[in-house]
């Protein structure tokens, strides 16, 4: 493997990490507010479908993006209704949302396009096109750093950069604003927040709504940036990998970036090589793909640093009995 | 005093939830421009209108009984085993190994060993998440999800390497003739009843025995009492001298074993070889089945047959109309949503209604609890 191969792998890691990153930050907002969300997968999928479908019908990727976010928001609100208003089981609600998305997308796709549960191929204005970062051309001649900047970092679609910028934004909102403080407090001790006269329900709905927007971006990027159409079950477990990344990152924004880049790198490696030949033995491709999940279990087991979830996570808040 | 009479809790609420799920499903069918009543008629007829339909319905139901019981026993200990899918995958590996290793002379000898193999492998796959939950506090939902993916990667790997049969397809060799389980057609044909050719086989009897066994375990043994006590209040259970690590481990081992047993129906009974995915989502259907069946073996059985009918009816629906098979997934999602997550939406108004209805004949002036 030479330097150019490495650049290409880094380039595709960043691209593959982006949907994970959006979903991971989505989960971060939701879980920090005390609402577990294993429905990330479903929200990515429904958004992927509606972005691709609307982009295909209107020819505008931006309208597609809006539709994707809106559909993901609707699912978020179902989750909020079940887990905040009716105090149902958040995990079960998440499972239901994943199935709902898996079924509805194919059902509607078949009804609208009759192409066996997929959307038509997107092209031109119906897709996000790559943008060059400033000076990419000029710097590409510089040895070592030049190709890294011009080929790995530059030339992605706008959503990749939005994703990267969402990380500091998330950090700022959660750790430097009053809203963020309250949001984190509601995930640790909702009773205290309620006593202070702040609505637990409203805060949790806000968190779930932000989660919906970010999942919408994730799905939209998947269908209109990474791929060029919606295909059945195209999220392919990304929601769960994002969940794994969230645990791996111990519910912190910057760590989340690191975890998503790592998991993106693993995907990029397994896409490129059918198996990795070390001198003594061979690592099968399946193992590289399973590595995010194995790493997460190891982290969860607390052998390498302990991941402690928000304390009130998963419990519906009951104001009075 | 309970807010609801028992019959309302056991029968009325699940029924209302189911009807709500079906109404929304009907709306979905109507939205994609089909007639919901016609669709329902096709599904019912396809599922129970012939011995062919019944055979497939009960074949699917057998899978769902095993995975439903797996989720149900975990629910009793207030554990959410979402890993039925992975445990069933490993179970299929166990069953396949048993069937491939030994040239079995007769299925009556092969079946008990396959049950052991499938159960053992399924239980082993549940053991690590259970241990981590019990001793290190890692959330079992997350670890079992991760183990689902690890299981599928493991099977994909094994079927392109060690277990791969010669040929292009990533599948194992066919099992020996002696491990073939008699199908419903063969069994019923022997006593002179004509039954269509379907994959339904003697595993259905094993599933019924599993229902009965689980009921016996949960309500007639000390261990079952401990599991239920732990589920109701872990603190009280610990105070009463029940060891939480032991209960968590045992419950999850049984749960994993039950999920693994699904393989005797799907792998040994139908496929007769190991494929990359033998489970096809049945592990997740188990969640819906356990929720609808209120985690009781009888309820699980009824719900499993209902879901079996749904799967078979859905297949017919795709055959006869332009509604894709994924309609089943939508209905399944709505059932999980209404019986699981939105249960409170139906329950609390119903509780209020029952309280008001009941208060008048009670002693006036004393507020009902």
From TrEMBL, chain A:
Gene Ontology CC entries for this record: plasma membrane
CDD domains referenced in this protein's UniProt entry, alphabetically: TM_PBP1_transp_TpRbsC_like
InterPro entries, A to Z: ABC_transp_permease (IPR001851)
Keywords of the record: Cell membrane, Membrane, Transmembrane, Transmembrane helix
Membrane topology: Multi-pass membrane protein
Record-annotated membrane-spanning stretches: 12-29, 44-70, 91-113, 158-175, 205-228, 240-266, 278-304
Top-level division of the source organism's lineage: Bacteria
Keyword Transmembrane set for record: yes
Subcellular location as annotated: Cell membrane
GO molecular function, one term: transmembrane transporter activity
The protein's name: Nucleoside ABC transporter membrane protein
TrEMBL record, chain B:
One family name in Pfam for this protein: BPD_transp_2
Subcellular location: Cell membrane
Cellular component GO terms, alphabetical: plasma membrane
Record has Cell division as a keyword: no
Entry-linked InterPro entries: ABC_transp_permease (IPR001851)
Keywords, in A-Z order: Cell membrane, Membrane, Transmembrane, Transmembrane helix
TM stretches of this protein: 12-33, 53-75, 110-128, 140-160, 202-219, 247-268, 274-291, 298-315, 327-346
Taxonomic superkingdom: Bacteria
Topological category with respect to the lipid bilayer: Multi-pass membrane protein
GO MF entry, a single one: transmembrane transporter activity
Protein name, per record: Nucleoside ABC transporter membrane protein
Species the sequence originates in: Palleronia pelagia
């Amino acid at each position: 493997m030479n330097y150019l191969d490495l650049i290409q792998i880094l380039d595709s890691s960043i691209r593959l990490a982006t949907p994970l990153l959006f979903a991971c930050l989505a989960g971060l907002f939701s879980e920090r507010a005390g609402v577990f969300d294993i429905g990330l997968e479903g929200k990515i999928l429904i958004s992927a479908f509606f972005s691709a479908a609307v982009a295909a019908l209107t020819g505008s990727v931006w309208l597609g993006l809006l539709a994707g976010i809106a559909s993901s928001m609707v699912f978020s609100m179902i989750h909020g209704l079940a887990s905040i208003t009716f105090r149902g089981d958040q995990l079960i609600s998440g499972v239901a949302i994943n199935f709902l998305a898996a079924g509805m997308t194919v059902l509607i796709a078949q009804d609208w396009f009759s192409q066996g549960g997929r959307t038509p191929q997107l092209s031109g204005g119906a897709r996000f096109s790559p943008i060059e970062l400033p000076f990419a051309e000029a710097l590409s001649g510089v040895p070592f750093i030049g190709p890294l900047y011009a080929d790995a970092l530059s030339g992605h679609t706008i959503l990749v950069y939005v994703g990267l910028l969402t990380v500091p934004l998330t950090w700022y909102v959660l750790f430097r604003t009053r809203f963020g403080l309250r949001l984190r407090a509601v995930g640790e001790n909702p009773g205290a927040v309620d006593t202070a006269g702040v609505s637990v329900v409203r805060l949790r709905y806000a968190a779930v709504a932000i989660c919906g927007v970010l999942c919408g971006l994730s799905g939209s990027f998947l269908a209109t940036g990474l791929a060029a159409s919606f295909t059945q079950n195209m999220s392919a477990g990304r929601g769960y990998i994002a969940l794994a990344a969230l645990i791996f990152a111990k519910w912190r924004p910057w760590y989340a970036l690191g975890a998503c880049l790592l998991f993106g790198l693993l995907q990029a490696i397994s896409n490129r090589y059918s198996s990795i030949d070390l001198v003594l033995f061979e690592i099968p491709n399946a193992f590289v793909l399973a590595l995010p999940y194995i790493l997460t279990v190891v982290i969860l087991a607390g052998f390498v640093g302990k991941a402690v979830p928000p304390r009130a996570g998963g419990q519906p808040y009951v104001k009075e009995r | 005093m309970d807010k609801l009479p028992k019959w309302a809790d056991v029968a009325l609420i699940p029924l209302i939830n189911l009807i709500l799920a079906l109404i929304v499903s009907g709306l979905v069918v109507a939205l994609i421009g089909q007639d919901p009543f016609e669709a329902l008629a096709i599904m019912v007829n396809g599922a129970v209108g012939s011995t062919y339909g019944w055979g497939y319905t009960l074949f699917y139901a057998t899978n769902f009984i095993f995975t439903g019981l797996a989720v149900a026993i975990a629910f009793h200990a207030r554990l959410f085993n979402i890993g039925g899918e992975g445990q069933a995958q490993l179970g299929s590996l166990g069953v396949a190994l048993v069937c491939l290793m030994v040239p079995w002379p007769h299925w009556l000898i092969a079946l008990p060993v396959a049950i052991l193999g499938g159960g053992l492998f399924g239980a082993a796959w549940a053991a690590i998440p259970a241990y981590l939950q019990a001793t290190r506090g890692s959330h079992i939902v997350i670890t079992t999800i991760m183990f689902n993916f690890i299981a599928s990667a493991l099977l994909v790997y094994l079927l392109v390497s060690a277990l791969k049969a010669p040929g292009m397809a990533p599948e194992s060799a066919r099992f020996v003739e002696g491990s073939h389980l008699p199908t419903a057609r063969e069994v019923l044909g022997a006593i002179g009843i004509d039954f269509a050719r379907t994959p339904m086989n003697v595993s259905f009897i094993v599933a019924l025995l599993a229902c009965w066994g689980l009921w016996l375990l949960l309500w007639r043994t000390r261990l079952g009492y401990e599991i239920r006590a732990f589920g109701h209040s872990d603190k009280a259970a610990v105070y009463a001298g029940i060891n939480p690590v032991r209960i968590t481990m045992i419950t999850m081992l049984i749960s994993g074993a039950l999920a693994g047993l699904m393989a005797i129906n799907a792998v040994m009974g139908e496929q007769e070889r190991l494929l990359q995915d033998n489970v096809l989502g049945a592990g997740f259907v188990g969640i819906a089945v356990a929720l609808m069946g209120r985690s009781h073996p009888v309820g699980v059985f009824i719900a499993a047959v209902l879901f079996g009918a749904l799967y078979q009816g859905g297949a017919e629906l795709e055959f006869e109309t332009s509604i894709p098979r994924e309609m089943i997934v939508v209905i399944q999602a709505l059932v999980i949503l209404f019986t699981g997550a939105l249960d409170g939406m139906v329950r609390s108004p119903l509780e209020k209604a029952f309280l008001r209805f009941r208060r008048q004949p009670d002693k006036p002036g004393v507020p009902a609890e």
